Amino acid sequence: MSLQPKYDIAIVGGGLAGLALAIQSARAGYKTVLFEREKYPFHKVCGEYISLESWNFLQDLGLPLSDMQLPIINRLLITTPNGNYIESTLPLGGFGISRYSIDKLLADIARQEGVTLLEETKVVNVVYRNNSFLLFTNKGDSEATVVAGAYGKRGNLDIKWKRQFTKVKPNKLNHYIAVKYHIRTHHPADLIALHNFENGYCGISQIEENKYCLCYLTTAANLRKCRNDISSMEKDILMKNPFLEKIFSNAEMLYEEPLTISRISFNKKTQVENHVLMIGDTAGLIAPLCGNGMSMALHSSKLAFEEINSFLQGRINRYEMEIQYTEQWEKFFGRRLQAGRLLQSFFGSPILSNVLIKLVKPFPKFVAFLIRQTHGKPF
């Protein structure tokens, strides 16, 4: 099979990180191809809250955020399974927008910028040789000088490459499932709420068109306990929290079925694998209760682009690109991920979450400090 034209940059996966990198690359004049398994627009399991640290970056990419009348979210409510709660202002705040909308808008910008955007295309292998890459897909092969992996939390390439986190036996950090709904309900537009239940927590916040994203994370064991039936689990476990009981009883569900993903791992990942630079969730996953995975995905695309650009300009070699990207990633996100893992260990345990809420309730400044540990500064 003859190889298609050689690209400067190939990106595997078209979520926030992949699309943001594609736009930056094409704008800089690089021949860029992006492979996406799905067809835009499509729904994704995601909390759909973006920290304001990303606002300027997204506007620079071409998203007219200021004109979109999106809900600005600047308060946080955390509840425990038995209904204890704490409320806090969010030091920086964020805004709500669905992945269905933002991914489609970014995909449109990428096409306008000249990115070759190949939808419904699955990358089955990436092989590095002679200082470039061969990419094998279900629709033919391509060749590129630099490849970035932006295919999300867990992909077929992770298994193929035997990435370390895929080989870890099921444990507290790697055996999660996530469930998402879009709903209509009565809930303040400026408030994001995190409701704890046994072995999990559920977030709710407003997105566009007065809809709400309702998304929860729990253990696979919780679902097994309820005969693998999601609605039984919601009734028997989630709705023990009076706040969740109220939401699930009164909400108008906008999906026929919830969206779900399984085998989510918060184990540490490498940022470079087989010379492929990993960005977004592919490089490392922050606990969703930190509400900051989308901003991290966007920021990681910027960090990766800076190193890729230096490499393609001939200012650094491939080894330096890989080392410097890893160092930058660690510098900006390493502490955040640690803080996220630590906080996650308090949530989902009725006893620990109650203790934490009682301890910090009298100290609003400390609550703000904890939130800041999981967020970055505008980039």
TrEMBL record:
Q: Which domain of life is it from?
A: Bacteria
Per its UniProt record, what SUPFAM superfamilies does this chain match?
A: FAD/NAD(P)-binding domain (SSF51905)
Q: Pfam families, from UniProt?
A: FAD_binding_3
Q: Which residues form the signal peptide?
A: none
Every FAD-binding domain range? 7-314
Its protein name is: Pyridine nucleotide-disulfide oxidoreductase
Which species expresses this protein natively?
Niastella koreensis
